[in-house]
């Protein structure tokens, strides 16, 4: 039981590192000496006199953006998500909610990237250690695009950033130009065998579901206090809304999570009428695309959802 509860806390920590209800617009200025000043997602103005050459990232999505733009990564987050093979040997420096500052300092970075919610508490510590901290939130599709543009400016790789953004936007435009053939009601469940939460439209996965054309049956449910982009899941609500498909996001024991969810639904005699059960539409979303901010892979996340919804629409006809 204790191990499962630790896993639950770890999963929710990963979730919040990719999701938050805060929305901040990018602000970029230059000073008379040519330095670049960028407002991060914690509403702090961070100045860059030159592109950083040694970068530590506490966020997986940001790490992959910076790497794709040609940044030099010297420290990466300690995570169960398999890193890019090119970065497998890079030093691990803890997580966004538990930073190993001794290791970070030893790497002599000129930029440390953190999460705007989880690492806000670390600002004074970072400053006392002489570290430049830049905080972001990859909560919505638009915010991830904004982050790519920010890093393009910081690294002086604007052309590379523009190409990456164009590729992602093209995927979105193609999806929006090809609407689903019928209404598809969907539920996205985050969880372990101990607890389940439903992704609200304000979460990243909820935002991607909306762009892909799915109808989120969790819309309107009360928010969880410490995870405002998620709702506590009611099996009665699932049965009443009758989703066409139920998506799961979990790390480890996926079949056990599915079995536990089915057990809870079966406790209500009406469960047999739920379309997702009748048509066997239980789908696990790839953790590397949906477990936290996917960074430059957000186009792949969006494409995966759209193709899945298309298949559900055909099967349910």
UniProtKB/TrEMBL annotation:
GO terms for biological process: cellular response to iron ion. The keyword Metal-binding does not apply. Pfam families: Peripla_BP_2 (PF01497). Residues 54-313 form the Fe/B12 periplasmic-binding domain. Keywords: Signal. Coiled coil: none annotated. InterPro entries: ABC_Transporter_SBP, ABC_transptr_periplasmic_BD. Residues 1-25 form the signal peptide. Gene3D superfamilies: Nitrogenase molybdenum iron protein domain. PROSITE patterns: FE_B12_PBP, PROKAR_LIPOPROTEIN. The keyword Signal applies. It comes from the Bacteria. Belongs to the bacterial solute-binding protein 8 family. PANTHER family: MOLYBDATE-BINDING PROTEIN MOLA (PTHR30535:SF34), VITAMIN B12-BINDING PROTEIN (PTHR30535). This is Fe/B12 periplasmic-binding domain-containing protein.
């Amino acid at each position: 039981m204790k191990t499962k509860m630790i896993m639950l806390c770890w999963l929710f920590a990963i979730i919040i590192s990719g999701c938050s209800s805060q929305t901040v617009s990018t602000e970029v200025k230059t000073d008379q000496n040519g330095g670049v000043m960028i407002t991060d997602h914690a509403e702090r103005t961070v100045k860059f006199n030159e592109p950083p050459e040694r970068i530590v990232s506490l966020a997986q999505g940001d790490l992959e953006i910076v790497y794709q733009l040609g940044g030099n990564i010297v420290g990466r987050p300690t995570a169960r998500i398999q890193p890019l093979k090119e970065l497998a040997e890079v030093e691990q420096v803890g997580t966004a909610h538990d930073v190993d500052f001794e290791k970070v300092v030893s790497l002599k970075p000129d930029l440390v990237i953190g999460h705007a919610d989880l690492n806000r508490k670390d600002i004074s510590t970072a400053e006392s250690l002489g570290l430049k901290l830049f905080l972001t939130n990859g909560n919505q599709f638009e915010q991830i695009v904004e982050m790519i543009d920010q890093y393009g400016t910081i690294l002086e790789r604007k052309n590379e950033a523009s190409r990456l953004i164009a590729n992602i936007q093209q995927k979105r435009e193609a999806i929006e130009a090809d609407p689903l053939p019928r209404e598809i009601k969907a539920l996205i469940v985050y969880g372990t065998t101990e607890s389940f939460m439903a992704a609200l439209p304000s979460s990243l996965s909820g935002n991607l579901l909306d762009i892909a054309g799915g109808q989120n049956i969790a819309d309107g449910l009360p928010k969880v206090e410490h995870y405002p982009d998620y709702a506590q899941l009611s099996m009665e609500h699932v049965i009443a809304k009758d989703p066409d498909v139920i998506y799961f996001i979990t790390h480890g024991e996926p079949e056990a999570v599915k079995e536990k969810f089915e057990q809870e639904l079966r406790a209500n005699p009406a469960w047999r009428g739920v379309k997702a059960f009748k048509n066997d539409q239980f789908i696990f979303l790839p953790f590397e695309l949906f477990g936290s901010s996917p960074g430059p892979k957000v186009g792949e996340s969006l494409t995966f959802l759209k193709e899945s919804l298309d298949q559900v629409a055909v099967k349910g006809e």
